[in-house]
Amino acid sequence: xxxxxxxxxxxxxxxxxxxxxxxxxxxxxxxxxxxxxxxxxxxxxxxxxxxxxxxxxxxxxxxxxxxxxxxxxxxxxxxxxxxxxxxxxxxxxxxxxxxxxxxxxxxxxxxxxxxxxxx
Length: 119
Known about the structure:
Elements: E1 3-7, H1 11-23, E2 27-31, H2 34-43, E3 48-52, H3 60-70, E4 75-80, H4 85-93, E5 96-101, H5 106-118
Parallel strand pairs: 1-2, 1-3, 3-4, 4-5
């Protein structure tokens, strides 16, 4: 299955996404620090990045920009507790395929991940 990088500044959110996706057979690499996630992507092939928009030091959109520099083929799903049209547009413009609103809905996440990976 897919190699999925998950980045959220809330550890519980990262653990939840990891559990949901591992049950679907994906290999999940959880991070709560932006630099660690970006460094990991530099030395490992990632199929999908699931990024929270609001992080500690950078925004998820900035992390997505960095990941796209490393590998333009990385697909991304953005997570947000504060959905706005502006954030959605910016994420999609930078190459995010989808975005999920928190609290995370298990079925919605599974569906979006499957759809993006097929894409």
